[in-house]
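Please, structure for the following, as tokens.
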Amino acid sequence: MENVLRPVLVVGGSLVITVMVGWATDLLLCKADRRHHETPLWGLLRRARVPYQLVLCSALLRGSYDQVKLLEEHRVGIGRALTLVLIGSAAWLVIRIAAAIVETSYSRYASSRAQRDPARVRRVRTQVELIMRVVSAVVIVVAASTMLLTFPAMRAAGASLLASAGIIAAIAGVAAQSTLSNMFAGLQIAFGDMVRIGDTVVVDGEWGTVEEITLTFLTVRTWDERRITMPVSYFTSKPFENWSRGTPQMTGIVYWHVDHSAPVEQMREKLRDILRQCPAWDGRAYGLVVTDTTPNTMQVRALVTAKDADDIWTVRVTVREEMIRWLCEKHPYALPRVNTADAVPPPGRPDGRRPSRDGAARLSFDKSGTGYG
């Protein structure tokens, strides 16, 4: 009878204690979260209740298993399995607690700096995410090493592994050269402030927003919602455009090709009216000048400003569309056209006729397009 009751009491007692302690801990965290609503720490710590209960249960079972005379022939295997579960759940718990602390620190910093310095907030966010990835990798490696050392064969091979560690490290360094370079490039990006999550960048002719940065790769979300994934070493070895570097304010350019008779001064006034009705324009500056001419047209350039890359795109397309619509309705003569005006006759030919390439006479045309002569 004792051989039956003892395992039931030990296993059942461990489970009951685990559930009760987990419930009491979660209740205390809920009360602390309601009392200190200004910090998300206590709410984030509740995410660790599953690994916390797993650590508690496996520790109780591992500590009391020697008192249970159950499955004696598998005693060593069961004990080692409980030890492995304890190590794994402890690593899981450490990662969850570290994530809660880091995320709470970032939330406090972001709430105090979001309005004054959004670029620095994005920089800290990038650093925090990479730090958490490094911490998670270190904890996982330590936990896996500890699990391996629970096996006697691994402990016996420890001396030989340490002796050959230099050779293995050299071989691994040569074999994983690109991976290691990407990892160091990721750390350089995180702490060198080259590019941050949320930055607007142009890489390989593609315009997009940095969505994710890891130790080995970086993801850019383009304007048409595609994702471009590239190694982080690209950003440390090749030039790229970062439109969010410094201040996010930008200046945009809009070009038109119009006839030489286009009313440039009225176009300046119309540009001012268009910008005043465009919410995306930040009001800093605007301008319209003639930048080039061709035999048939002249090139007109408008400069507009906006607070960031998204707004500058909106301002540019709005100005382009509204100006073309206004020219079509009010000044259609200003649009590019084929010149059919009469040619100036050469000296000695007052009739306006001029010889063609084949020697025959060619008619000139007046402005209405009808031939004469």
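The chain has twelve helices and twelve strands. Residues 75-113 form the longest helix (39 residues).
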